[in-house]
Every structure is written in structure tokens, then in C-alpha cells.
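Regression test attached.
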Amino acid sequence: MRAVTIERQVARAGWLFLAPALLLIGFFFFLPAAAALLLSLTDFDIYALATLDNARFVGTSNYARLLDHPLFWTSLKNTFYFALGCGPLTVLVALVAALLVNAPLARFRTFFRTAYFVPFVTTLVAVAIVWRYLYHPTYGLLNYTLGVFGIAPVNWLGDPTWAMPAIILMAVWKNFGYYMLIFIAGLQAIPRELYEAAELDGAGAWRRFISVTVPQLGPTLVFVGVVVMIGYFQLFAEPYVMTQGGPLKSTTSLVLLMYEEGFRWWRMGFAAAIAFVLFVIILIWTLIQRRLEPKAA
Amino acid sequence: MNLRGLVSLFALCAGCGRAEGAREVTLRFWAMGAEGEQVAKLIPQFERENPGIRVRVQQIPWSAAHEKLLTAHVGKSTPDVAQLGNTWIPEFEALEALTPLNELIAQSNVISGQSFFQGIWATNVVDDTVYGVPWYVDTRVLFYRKDLLARAGWRDVPTTWADWRRAMLDVKRILGEDSWPAFLPTNEWAQPAIFGMQTGSPLLKDRGRYGAFSDPEFMRAFLFYLSLYREGLAPVYGNTDVANVFQEFERGRFVFYITGPWNIGEFGRRLPPDLQDAWATAPLPGPSGAESGISTAGGASLVVFRESDHPAESWKLIEYLSRPEIQVQFYQLTGDLPPRLEAWQDTILSRNDKALAFRQQLDRVRPVPLVPEIESIMFKLIDYAEQSIRGGVPPEEAMRRLDAEVNQMLEKRRWILERRTASAR
């Protein structure tokens, strides 16, 4: 009898402690999300701003329209192209950079660590201007370098086939520094004894990396992998400042499409539907990823 | 001091504040970009002439203007007076956000429809009701290199499409493969829309209910536009693919450039002094001679918002800014071309030979269809035009797809119009 009351009291205290956070999350997350879901079932637009009479409840027809909207499929394809191209590349570059900076032989560690991290903290708009010059078809450094090797100039941001690779390259450069830092933290948490023991057992550098570093880094890898992909599925700022989604819509991402529909043309109902589709995609992807990657501790 | 004393002191202050405030009205005026920066210099004179009115100019960047105005409307915090891009007027009319001006204009001795360029005035009229007063005009003309054109054997700018194309072919011959006679950025809708209006396409038909892009008139224009890229007369570049337009123009990498009045100032500043006599402006050529060389009626207007508590004072400000001599001052500050005919008689404008082409063009301007969706439709036009220019989609197919999507975008408008006629019955 008494145990039950205590249990109940504990439970009540638990809820009480949780209440402020729950209230905030409910108010600022669940409520808007629910409102957006409702919005996605209407055709709320510029006319509806005048009087609500002009908004119609349209059921799932926004979603149906999305399915035969050519731009939706293009932007979905672009988003996956970017996420799948850029995600693994970022993780790889970040890991390699972390290993290099963390290597016992490395000199000027702090300098390199800072240098690699700087792009991440620089504003994207400033970075974009510099990269636009690097990518310039006639005067750009990149084409100049290619020219030295006798490769014909590429219209990086103006050619539909090259625009996305150009964006990916810039995004990797811009973002890897942050994940490098997380990897460095992960690397430094690996006990030195493990390496010593492996060395005594006669393991070479590669063997030590595969058998000690990778498994020990497992949780960090899972974390970085998930966070990178969630971030990249929401690609927006890079194409927004570099190409405005062009040329030929080859860099229009789902979020850019949503932004244009919602905030530029004020087709809020339709934009909300895009947002929910993106939410479901990210949710499914994260669940898959958690299954595929090595079990976290 | 006790509480009572405090309260009475507050009451006193509130009282004196009110006594003074009763005579003074503060107008909130939103202006965008460079106009917002410069118009503040014209305000002191207005405040001297109207002692009871103070004006607070708030400068809004162009890129955020549309969103800010919409959110302000939703939040009921719209300004009293604002500068509005004239393609936005139908949209804000649909929102019922603007004050109809017909009566104010009828009583005004400064503003009347006849004293403005007709094409420009028309952009402010939705179903016979006037919602804005033109503030400055923006239309597209031809900027060109006189010297290079002359070298190709053309003394004057051609006035028909056929001659223009021939001139471009001649120019191409002397410039070589690396250069282009014309620069028509693939991501600007003005050019295909202008060509369409020149061949007599309404762009939208049936009072803006359906797209008219796959109809014969627009197709004729679109094929001409497309041929300029196909024949290598214009580069397949958007305006972000060219890092510095002025440099390219200086190097003679292109000879014709269809663009707007702001570039008069820019070309003057950015091109070297020895090239200043080598460039000029001309009205657009048309499919069948100068008369058909129509261009867009763009620009910005001044509007009074319905939520304003001071419509009469707001109107006074608009009247002041519309006076011919103030418009000339404004032109000197910003380079924006005045929409009033009288202002062009001023020597500062009539002597500027680069502005002259605009004066001629303004007699032949036409607004794009006055529907709220027009801007998004025009951006769709670029998307589908690009599919043909870059992607190799057959032109007929591209325009058919465009019409299909435009018709879908206009579905809501058709529904609203139908409901309106049903309720009127």
C-alpha cells in the first residue's frame, strides 16, 4: 500500500520536474507541427490572407499534387544526390583530417585544427562570394588549375551536370571542420593502452586503425553519420546563395522548393505538405541508418 | 512622493502629451533599397510645408520587402504609405490591403491619370479602381556598343527583328566565336515576356484565367527568342554566370544588352571614360518595325494602406512626391526615371541622350497581366524556357507544359472569380 503511494509520489515528482521542458517542447514544437499538418490539408495562400473564407479544406490533395509535380521529383532527386554524395564524403574527409591532426608526428597541430575549423564558423554568404570566383568559367582559379593540366574549362555553376558537384565540394569544405573536431574528441578518448597492447601483439598501423580506432570510434561515427545526414537532407543555404536552385533546377533542394512555395509565393498549404514529406523522409532514413551502423554502446 | 502624487503626475504628463500630439501626425513610410536611402532627403521640405505632419522613412531591403509587407499586413502593422513594385499591386488588392484612390485623385490638382505615361498608369488600375500612383518607371531598352555595331556596318540600331538578327550575324562575324552579339540572361523573364507582348500575346487569356503561352502569338515570339541561343547569337548564360557584366561589355564580348534604367548610371560609372561615347541606348526593335517594339511597364508606385489612420495626410505626401520638380530632384538623387510627362521636359532629363531612348520607349510600354499570381507565373516562364534553351525540350512541348502548370496555378483565381460572380447574381 505504502510502496504504491511512494511510487505514485515519485512519478508525480518526475512529471513535475519534466513539466517545464514538456511545456516548452509542446508549445514550441508539437503545437506548430500540428498546426502545420493541418495547414497542409488546406489550400491556404495569398487569397486566404485577405479572408479565411478563401481557404478551402482540400484533404490530401496537396500531397497528391506533390506526387505529380515535376519539380518535386527533381528536387527530391537533387536532395538525395547531395545528401548521399556529400554525407559520406564529409565523414571521410573529417575522419582523415582528424587522424592527421591527431597523429603523434603532426606539427603545428593547433594551427591546422584552427585552419580546418575556420570555414565552419565563417558566414556562408561571404564564403559563397569567394567560391563563386573560384568557380568562374573564364577567370576562376579552379579552371585555371585544370587548364594547366590541359583540361578544358568547365562552367561550374552554369552547367546542370556540374552545378551539384560544385555545391557538394563547397559544402564538404565548409562543414568537415566541425565533424573533425568531434572525431578528435572521440580519438582522444581512446585509451592509449589499447594501442600499446596492439603494438606489442605485432599489429601494424593499418591493423591498429581497423581493430582499435574504428570500433572504439563506433558511437562517434554513428552520431556524426546521423547528424550529417539530417543536416544535409535539409540542404538550403548553399544553393540559395550560390545558384538560386539553377541552372535548370539542378540544385533545387526540397527545402529550397518549400521556401519558394511558402515564403516567396505564399502557397502555405502546399509548402506545409512538402515539409511533412521531408520530415517523413528524414525519419525513415534515420531509422534505417541506426539499423545499419554498428551498435552504439 | 506618495502614490497619489505619482498618479496625478502621470495623468498630467499624459495630458500634456496628448495636447501636443493632437496637432502632430507621424506617418510611417516604407521605401525600398536605394529609394529608401535617398527619399529621406526630400522629406524636410515636405515637413516644412506641412507643419502638422512628420514622416518616418523606414528603409526596407528589396530582397525582404515582399515578405515584410505580407507579414505586416497579417499582423495589422502596415505602414501608412509604401513604395510597392507595380506587379505587386494586384496581389495587395486581392488582400484588400490598399486604399482605393479614385476619389482622392478626382479632387487632386496635382495628380491625374493623363499626366502620367499611359502604360505605367495602367499598372495601378485593377477593375477601374486606382490603387497606386506611379513613383518611378522601369522599362527595358537596348544598351549597345555603337562602335562595334558601326564596325559591322550598321550605322543605326535596326527597328525590326529581321534586321536586328541580320545585324547580330554581322556582329558575330567581326567578333569571333568567343563573343556574342547579344546578352539575354537565361534567368530573366523580361526578355521572353517582352518578345511575347511584341507579337501581340496577352500572356494570360480570358481575364487572367488561363495561360496563353502555347498559343500561336507567344509561340512566334518564343521561337525567335530561342533562335538567338540556337544560332549562337546569345550565350546560354544566366546573369550569375557572368561575374562582371560591365567588364564583358567593355571587352566587347557582347554588343547588345536588354536592360533597365539603373544601368545608365552603372554604365557611366563602371565603363572607362574613353568608352563613354562608344555605348548608347535605343528603344527595342519589334517584329514589324518600331511601332511594335513594345516593352514592359515596370517600376514602383506609392500606395496608401487601408489600415492607415491618416489617409488624408498620406495622400498629401504622395501628392508632394508626385510634383514634377520633386520628381526631377528624385531622379538626380537616385537615377530613377520619373513617370510624369512634365518631368521629362526638364533640361536635366531632356539633355541626357542615354535617357532619351527610355523617353521614346515609355510611349510603347504595356503592363504584364494584372493578376496576383503574375510574378510566380513569370518565374515559371523562365523555368520552362530554360528547358528548351538548355535541356533540348521541343519549344511546343515546353510551352504546353508551362500552360498546364500555369492553369493549375490559376485554379484558385478562377474559383474566386466564379464565386464572386455567383454572389453578385
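Expected vs. actual: identical. Chain B has two domains: 25-138+297-351, 141-295+371-418.
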